[in-house]
Amino acid sequence: MHTSILSGKTYFIRTFGCQMNMHDSERVSGLLDSCGALEVAGPEDADIVIFMTCCVREAADTRLYGQCSSCKSLPAPPSGRRVVAVGGCIAQRDGAGLLTNLDNVDVIFGTHSIAHVAELLEDAFTDGERHVRCEETDAQPATSMPWHRAESYRAWVPIMTGCNNFCSYCIVPYVRGREKSRDMDEIVDEVTGLARVGAREITLLGQNVNSYGRDLFGAPRFAELLRRLGDTGIERIFFTSSHPKDLLPETIDAMAEVPAVMPQLHLAVQSGSSRILKLMNRRYTREQYLDLIDRVRDRIPDIALSTDIIVGFPGETEEDFLETLSLAERVGYAQAFTFIYSRREGTPAARIADDTPREVILDRFNRLVKVIEGSAYAFNQHDLETVVPVLVEGTSKKDATKLLGKSPKNQTVHAPLPEGLRVDDLVGRIVDVKVDTARTWYLSGSVVGQPR
After folding, report:
1. Can you tell me the distance from the alpha carbon of 23 to that of 26, in angstroms, rounded to the nearest whole number?
2. Rg of the Cα atoms in the chain
3. What CA–CA distance (Å, rounded) separates 282 from 221?
């Protein structure tokens, strides 16, 4: 039996970016666990430090360089030698080029090379050389690797990788590759197994879950997948991300009819201007998006809608921005992730000239944030004086006597810890909370009845 040189070595993983990166980190962690490595809480105690990177926004590069540089001043690790590795999207994009700017990095592995992390680290420890692996396709997909889940009660479940959309501002298709769906039976078996071992909530992951199955069956079969997963025994199903152009009527029907699918939908709009949407290559208009929202709300009236919006896309005028503002007011989002446009080399949008002053873009951004805060506050008022089932995650960062959890609409909910119970008794369980306060970003109240 092969004994890995990694056995007994300590490791720390820092993850940047999206949920897919978080899941990739869980797979890397599982692989290292299977080699006998031991996870530690911080880089100062780690023989192996791994950065799982995101390159969607420009600041991600600066952050990575700073984090890698800070490793130079760490105390000596337990084994006497520290190996620093960079994985994820920046690694896939830049490959060996990263070694020029990051002189203390020993291992680079791309998004399609996660299964080879252990051997790359072993080689780095053995020969002291720098090792790079950034394949263009997955010889062995990450989903086939061991899995170290951060929590026992919920899990990320990737249903597909890659993206075919090529939005003009987005680097993701270039670093994650084309859409590749997992076998449906394999996904159903995985979720059935998760339910059997006590998981209560899953989040299905994909760059565009609505097109799941197109490469396997010639047409999307996401609605069928949702219905089959609804029969596995899992109690809560969320999913991300959804592209509006592929949200089919049968998917909306499945969301409305499968009790386990939570009444929450993240539907990225990016802009409320049809002119800007065309420049973004989003392939829908403002009117089509709003019609889709109406159809979703017709089937699921109390649904919590969230979105992504980019402010300051090259060439955006005040008129374009006002269309975004009015769309946000019309939809009434429960939550929105708002971003100032970040130029990414290699994307078509990077070639569009723009002379909009920075202060104008910042002013637009702040005006949009005010609208979103108003709609989020208004949405949460609907739950005042109602009883909300909350999946407990732990305690509030600000007050250890208060429980923190998530509602079916993915709202953050606080409640005082019931007398006679410890938080450890409740993590991963569902408690009913009678809501007496509804703020912009959270609900709070008191626990009623018994945990389950």
Report:
1. 5
2. 23
3. 21
E strand or H helix that includes residue 339? strand 335-340
DSSP track, 232-279: TT-SEEEEE-B-GGG--HHHHHHHHH-TTB-SEEEB--B-S-HHHHHH
pLDDT-derived band at 135 (thresholds 50, 70, 90) equals confident
SS3 452: coil
Rounded distance between C-alpha atoms, residue 105 and residue 61, angstroms: 14
Dihedral of CA 392/396/400/402: which sign? negative
For residue range 170-182, what is the model confidence (pLDDT) as tens digits?
888 887 788 999 9
Lowest mean pLDDT among 44-58, 316-330, 402-416, 433-447: 44-58
Provide the CB-side half-sphere exposure for 410 (13 A, CA): 22
What pLDDT, on the 0 to 100 scale, is given for residue 16?
Answer: 87
Element (H, E) at 380: helix 358-381
Asked whether 383 and 435 are in contact (CB, 8 A), the reply is yes
Buried residues in 29-57 as b, exposed as e (16+ CB within 10 A): bbbbbebebbebeebeebbbbbbbbbbbb
DSSP 448: E
Decide: 85 and 50 in contact? Cβ < 8 Å.
yes
> First vs last Cα of the chain: how many Å apart?
44
Amino acid at 141: P
The residues, ordered by sequence, that sit 6+ positions from 222 with a Cβ below 8 Å of its Cβ are 209, 210, 211, 212, 213, 248, 251, 254
- Tokens coding 248: 């089919």
Give the pair of three-digit tokens for residue 270: 């990016």
Walk across the sheet containing 10-15 and list its strands: 38-39, 10-15, 48-53, 83-88, 107-109, 131-133
pTM of the model: 0.82
Question: Is-contact 269 167, C-beta < 8 A?
Answer: no
Residue 399 neighbours by CB distance under 10 Å: 12
Token pair of 164, please?
């075919």
The half-sphere exposure of 150 on its side-chain side, counting CA atoms within 13 A, is 16
Task: Work out the angle between the directed axes of helices 358-381 and 318-331 (0-180°, nearest 10).
Answer: 10
Task: Tell me how far the alpha carbon of residue 24 is from its chain's centroid.
Answer: 11
Token pair of 46 as six digits = 């780690």
Q: Quote the CA–CA distance of 312 and 320 in Å, as a whole number.
A: 10
- Tens-place pLDDT, residues 282-299: 999 999 999 999 999 999
| Rounded distance between C-alpha atoms, residue 172 and residue 327, angstroms | 26
Identify the three-state secondary structure at position 5.
Answer: coil
Query: Residue 437: how many CA atoms within 13 Å on its side-chain side?
Result: 12
